[in-house]
Amino acid sequence: MTDQRPLLRALFDAAVAAAHPDSILAAHLPPLPRGRIICLAAGKGAAAMAAAAERHYLDTLGLAPSRLIGIATTRHGHRVATRAIDVIEAGHPMPDAEGLRGAEASLKLAATATADDLLLVLLSGGGSANWILPADGITLAQKQATTRALLRSGAPIGEVNTVRKHLSRIKGGRLACAGSSAAEIVTLAISDVPRDEASAIASGPTVPDPTTLDDARALVARYKLDIDDAVHAALNDPRNESCKPGDAAFARARFAIIARPRQSLDAAIKLARDSGYAIADLGADLEGEARDVAAAHARLAREARAAGRRLAIISGGELTVTVRGNGRGGPNQEYALALAQHLRDLPDIAALAADTDGADGGAGHATDPAGALIDARTFAKIDERDLDPTAYLANNDATGFFDQTGDLLVTGPTLTNVNDIRVILV
Q1: For the CA atoms of the chain, what is the radius of gyration?
Q2: How far apart are CA 406 and CA 9, in angstroms?
Q3: Is 126:417 a contact under the CB 8 Å cutoff?
Q4: Which helix (H) or strand (E) is 232 found in, with range?
Q5: What are the pLDDT digits (tens) for 43-81?
């Protein structure tokens, strides 16, 4: 039987390469301003984006180093070497004090921008957690507890960010509002959200926000979130409404997405097709409970196998996990575990599910797994070690399961993030 793991990994790598700052950013960077370039970056690709901007402006265009300043706030373990732009490593998915320091410093630097300056904002997935600047009256610990409740609720990322934006002094357009209204603001973003909604990427610090305090309060009620009284009070304070269209802060603001999940999915699809597979393209914006989506995809795989088709079932998006147990693992690992549960009798099917940022759930460490693979070796380990996928699912312990089978995919930080990629090879 052919080992499909090299191809699965190549498909993942192709998706990542299509969205890497080193290859995509320079073509989108704006021309030199009369004054300074103030570069503020946030997210898992922040340091890599800052370094790519430095190479373009300092080396290609010959900008004097004194005219380029900035701060890149990225996830712990995602630092790369920079020259003019400071790098701060901060918590993700749980925000921490370093993220608070990075956000405060970024907001202060934005306020110094003049009409001659360019405020260059570089965003990537993870920016919502990396830039943590609680609304007045909320402590870091209270914001962390709210984040924890949101992440455990199973809410889609867009809804999570709706609440975050109304508890922040930097999200929901507030970074733009903090800068001088005369300064030009150019935001370049790597999208990690379904349908590439600008106000959802890093919780939209430089764009108008269509969501409201009413929306945030409704989500707290719908998911029965256990949050502090101070957080409830903040969500009832009209001063915490996010910035809306028509605000003068957006008069000289421009926003562009430079990498999308769709582009990365297309890169993987091309490679799978070139490798002899027909394609079932399920889209780049899938949402839903990881185990339920896996059950539906397992049915498609069984149907394809029964029809004798050589098929690659490929999807992107960002799935969720409603946490009921005490185990470890993100949505990609849970998806792969549910696939193993449904496909364990079919050794000629192989699959990969991974986050393109190189970390799926986990404890916020650079060594966290990106996801997991399954194939005949996985199914053999299930029998050999008498493993029960259903029991591991019940405890939300996909990492524990794949530790046993040896099927965790560990890539380290990829320095970009265009959501998940899932592939089933039949």
Answers
A1: 22
A2: 15
A3: yes
A4: helix 229-235
A5: 999 999 999 999 999 999 999 999 999 999 999 999 999
Single-letter amino acid code for the residue at 264 = S
Report domain extents, the chain: 5-13+262-425, 21-133+168-208+243-259
Q: SS3 for 4?
A: coil
Q: Which conformational region is residue 13 in: left (phi greater than 0), alpha (psi within -120 to 50 degrees), or beta?
A: alpha
What is the pLDDT at residue 138?
96
Q: Give domain 21-133+168-208+243-259's CATH number out of 3.40.50.10180, 3.20.80.10, 3.30.70.1230, 3.40.1370.10.
A: 3.40.50.10180
Percent of the chain topping pLDDT 90 = 91
Q: What is the pLDDT of residue 180?
A: 57
Asked whether 66 and 79 are in contact (CB, 8 A), the reply is no
* Concatenated DSSP letters of 288-307: SBHHHHHHHHHHHHHHHHHT
Q: Which of 191, 352, 203 is nearest to 264 (CA)?
A: 191
CATH assignment of 5-13+262-425? 3.40.1480.10
Residues 6+ apart with CB under 8 A from 275: 7
Tallying the residues shown for the chain, one arrives at 426
Do residues 314 and 269 touch, judged by C-beta distance below 8 A?
yes
**0.85 exceeded by pTM:** yes
Whether 161 and 146 have beta carbons less than 8 Å apart is answered as no
| pLDDT, tens digit, 9 for 90 and up, residues 398-418 | 999 999 999 999 999 999 999
Structure tokens at 251: 């008069």
pLDDT tens per residue across span 250-282: 999 999 999 999 999 999 999 999 999 999 999
Give the pLDDT of residue 179. 65
